[in-house]
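Please go through this chain and its backbone structure tokens and walk me through the local backbone shapes. Keep your notes short.
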Amino acid sequence: MKYESSKACTNQRYVQLLINITALMSEIIPFPVPNQQQKSDLDAVIDAALMAIPRQDREKLRFELIKTIDSYDAFFSEWSLSLPEDSNETLRKQIYDIAHQEHDRKIQMLKDIMRLKIKELVAEYRQRK
């Protein structure tokens, strides 16, 4: 008798597991996932600057922009942070906050450089053509 009741209990667990799996399967995201990524302000500026350029040349200018940005290497995107070992938590948080602000400032500078560089590349292209 004991075996029967444990078997029934196991069957109930199995049924509950199937119900849970079915509920999860109804939440599965269908493929392909639509690209809903929004363009940033920077992308909009770049696209607007390149709009009047023929497609093939547009890709060349975009590649030149990428090469320019890559030439800055890690200056804008990486930073190291050394905290004094004997500092308290408040000081550590303040140092981290300042470093984070500096990083945000560098990223903004990089975006400004990209805005100016794409305008320069388009102007140079128009002079050549």
Summary: Helices lie at 2-25, 41-50, 55-71, 89-128. The two ends are 92 Å apart (CA to CA).
